[in-house]
Structure prediction request, 406 residues.
Amino acid sequence: MNQASAGHLLRLIRGGQARTRGELQRVTGLSRSTVSQRLDQLFRAGWIREAAGDPVDAPTGGRPSLRLTFDTGHAVVLCADLETRHARAAVLDLGGTVLAEHSGALMINQGPDEVLGRLAHWFALLLDKADVRVDAVCGIGLSVPGPVHPVSGEVVQPPMMPGWDRYPVARRLRAALAAELRFDGASRIPVLLENDANLMALAEQRRNFADCSAFLLIKVSTGIGAGVVVGGEIYQGIDGAAGDIGHIRLSEYGYALCRCGFYGCLAAVASGRALAEQLTASGTPTASGSGVRDQLAVGHPDAVRLAREAGRLVGGVLATVVTLINPGVLMIAGDLAGPPFLTGVRETLYQRAMPRTTAYLQVVTSRLGDRAGLVGAAAMVVESLYAPDSADRRLAALAATTPARA
Ligand SMILES: [Zn+2]
Prediction:
């Protein structure tokens, strides 16, 4: 990587390692004029601002330095968090602030063609609601309830998403959006996909536990999945299958059929869907994970008991996960995240894991709640597009299409 490039300076500014021209010179060893030249590229693109903000450690007696900041308002991202029966979509600025949001029923098992067509329609309405022009959209991020290949970016062999295996999601969504907005440029917008638990983990780690170098999030909604952020990066494994703990099989539950087709999966006995079925069987009709959440919210005794039992089962599996990863934070998120489930998790986790692995472990519930997936999707898109290499490529492309300033 070119350590002196404009993209590299942008990373220092965004990361807070350098907040003024002087600091950029000190950190990079570049001359004053080279720093100015590189910054000019960033100013021309509209990506940064320079203003007298808070005085930043100016040398005593010197003039206060002007502060450089990433301009989070110069573009927007479109993001969607697709769940099995429901979806949430939003326009966000580059700092992850939601500018307009919509949520509603959207069945993932209707297949990608139908779901992405509907989503493009939602995006068009949201841009209108946020009063943002489509040419301000720099990227699209999708959170999906299945594994995503780290290189191809495709959904691969998802247990709960019939019809989505290796489907060209990016191409279909861009085409649908171009048709909705009558804007050919939509066909060039980057579309990035990632697993839902991974994006929730990314969002929560970035926003609330930035110093935690090993962060583990378990999402328990209709299904069960884990997201791991190690050293600041999502840990995907070699083909995106890392964290799919819902389909680990428990020997004592061989009778329970899972949606993936096998018997005895953790998700077949401890997920929101499994609890909904058990509640329904015991006389409380409950449709899905969100239905269980509603029952838990009103303190339904059966729901509370079942959630605690489910927590114990998940905690048993987490004893192994925590021993392997040794995280600083274990966050429980999703429809079941609440005191009964958390109590169950603690019971088996602390009993079965070595005290040394859990001595400094914080077990917490989600801070961002239902928006974690959206915030994570936006962070993924922004971090990808403004990383030094892609920032430099995009700046070069912009310079080629924009006449030079006189
Ligand atoms: Zn399964």
Summary: The first strand starts at residue 48 and ends at 51. The pocket of zinc ion is lined by residues 159, 247, 258, 260, 262, 265, 267 (CB under 6 Å). The chain has a mean pLDDT of 93. The CA atoms of residues 154 and 168 lie 7 Å apart.
